[in-house]
Amino acid sequence: LENISDTSGKPFPRALAYWNRVFLAGLTERHDLAGAPARDLLQLADRHDNPSLRAMGLVACGRVARWDGETARARDLFQQGLGAAEAVHNHLMVDIARQDLAQLAGVGGAGGADDHRAALIALVPVARSHILTGNVSQQLQTAVHIATHLAEIGHLLPAATALVRLDQTPMSGAQGFSAEVHAVLGRLDEDDRA
After folding, report:
1. pLDDT digits over 44-87, tens only?
2. I need a labelling partner for 161 at 20 to 30 A (CA). Which of 10, 30, 85, 115 fits?
3. According to DSSP H, which parts of the chain are helical?
């Protein structure tokens, strides 16, 4: 991707390489590897004066701040990223920034360290946006987060129903729903399981 940018002079492939490095650092829990590519992404966006890339950079830096335990800074960066994405009608980055804000609400909302109700409230605009844009992959990810938060506040049957249905979709294997499904089903009583 970086070679493509070098050859073409277009910044997006390099930006995607930086974004992917931050994403992979999160997946592998090697958060120490995320700071440099997140900063590089934001600097690239500033050099090219590109609001879409700026939204990507702000969200990437927000993730680094969240992993570093800087909740207030992470929230500010996610909100800036959301604003930048909304300004240029970049619906994918709007959804991603809202998803990150919802996740942040779930681990540091007004109700404490595990404020699952705050996360559910924050996920409402994300879900509405997915309904309008039809982004199936993001819909599934959001639905899993909603079901997980429902389970955490004791609404096990609706959460289990949603997860079982999601587990039957073609993308379920790639999204790793089975563990969530079994975890929630394991908490149901025998009548509900039937």
Report:
1. 999 999 999 999 999 999 999 999 999 889 989 998 998 898 88
2. 115
3. 2-8, 12-27, 35-48, 51-67, 71-87, 91-108, 116-133, 136-152, 156-167, 172-175, 177-185, 190-193
